[in-house]
């Protein structure tokens, strides 16, 4: 059976990757080919269809509405082919381990302590964990799903399901909080991964420690929060990352928490309901995320605008 209206099939993968990344360079990197090879295939597809698929600027590449429609159809077809191939080969993806990438500090301080509960709730779910942040190239990386803070645009073709909002506030040992209330200077702890954390919190809350004895910067959030738990000073703590320490009484939040307008979500290359493992993980994560909203008594009023 002939399909006279089908475009050249070898052009579709480079085209779909280019639309998803809005970049031929990133598409080439994902497919392990040269930029020129991707460019030629996209041009061949445009020639076959008789229409341009991208608006090309000096430093930009924007898919047309027609290109986005075609790319969505290509992705859907690829998903169907992949699913059929798994069935034929006996390598059912839904029966294997689920590779979950999570932002490092959230992974260590919140997710890992809850793994026994996940195993008890879903003994059939085999999760392989890895630490990572930022963009995820699902077609290239050995990752099935990822938990990420929404501080970057979600790539074309990636599904994002919100999990919980980000709440931030200063945290420290209870005895250090007493010194703060007495107006004594304390050390402020910073992190290289969010260098503006203190300024962001002050702008949102409208207040903060009046004096500090010193300032110390740590490479990662995890280290700054560990230092706060050890009594070194006061750090800005996202509520999700300090929840357990607050419950244990190891840390306290003398000024409460305020929403910073960001949040965390589960990223996946296809809708979660199309993968039994992802759907099970998402349901469990949503249940756990219910605890990541500070009680009213722990919230501070945002500064008036």
Strand order within the widest beta sheet: 4-3-5-10-6-9-7-8
| Number of E strands | 10
| C-alpha Rg (nearest Å) | 24 Å
Average predicted local confidence, pLDDT:
87
Poorly predicted regions: none
- As a percent range, the share of strand residues is 15-25%
Would you give the CATH topology of the largest domain?
D-Maltodextrin-Binding Protein, domain 2
Shape: elongated
Supply the number of helical segments: 11
Q: What is the compact description of this entry?
A:
The chain has 305 residues and is α/β, with parallel strands linked by helices. It has helices spanning 12-21, 24-31, 35-49, 65-89, 104-111, 115-121, 174-181, 197-205, 221-229, 239-248, 276-289; strands at 54-56, 61-63, 98-102, 127-131, 145-149, 159-171, 186-191, 212-218, 234-238, 258-268.
Tell me about this structure.
By secondary structure, the protein is α/β, with parallel strands linked by helices. The chain is built from 11 helices and 10 strands. An 8-stranded mixed β-sheet has the order 4-3-5-10-6-9-7-8, with helices on both faces. Strands 1-2 form a two-stranded antiparallel sheet. The longest helix has 25 residues.
């Amino acid at each position: 059976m002939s399909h006279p209206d089908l475009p050249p099939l070898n052009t579709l993968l480079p085209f779909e990757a280019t639309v998803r990344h809005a970049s031929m360079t990133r598409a080439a990197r994902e497919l392990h080919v040269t930029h020129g090879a991707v460019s030629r295939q996209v041009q061949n597809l445009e020639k076959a269809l008789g229409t341009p698929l991208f608006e090309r600027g000096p430093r930009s590449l924007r898919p047309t509405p027609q290109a986005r429609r075609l790319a969505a159809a290509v992705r859907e077809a690829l998903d169907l082919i992949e699913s059929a191939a798994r069935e034929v080969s006996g390598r059912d993806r839904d029966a294997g381990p689920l590779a979950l990438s999570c932002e490092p500090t959230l992974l260590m301080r919140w997710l890992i302590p809850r793994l026994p509960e996940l195993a008890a709730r879903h003994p059939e779910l085999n999760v392989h964990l890895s630490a990572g942040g930022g963009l995820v190239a699902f077609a290239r990386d050995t990752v099935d799903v990822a938990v990420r803070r929404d501080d970057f645009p979600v790539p074309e073709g990636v599904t994002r399901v919100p999990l919980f909002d980000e709440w931030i506030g200063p945290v420290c040992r209870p005895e250090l909080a007493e010194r703060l209330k007495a107006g004594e200077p304390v050390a402020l702890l910073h992190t290289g991964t969010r260098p503006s954390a203190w300024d962001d919190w002050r702008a949102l809350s409208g207040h903060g420690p009046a004096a500090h004895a010193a300032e110390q910067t740590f490479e990662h959030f995890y280290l700054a929060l560990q230092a706060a738990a050890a009594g070194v000073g006061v750090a800005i703590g996202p509520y999700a990352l300090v929840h357990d320490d607050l419950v244990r009484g190891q840390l306290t939040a003398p000024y409460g928490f305020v929403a910073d307008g960001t949040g965390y979500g589960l990223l996946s290359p296809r809708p979660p309901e199309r993968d039994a493992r992802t759907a099970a993980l998402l349901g469990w994560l949503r249940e756990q995320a219910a605890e990541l909203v500070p009680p009213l008594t722990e919230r501070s009023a945002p500064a008036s605008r």
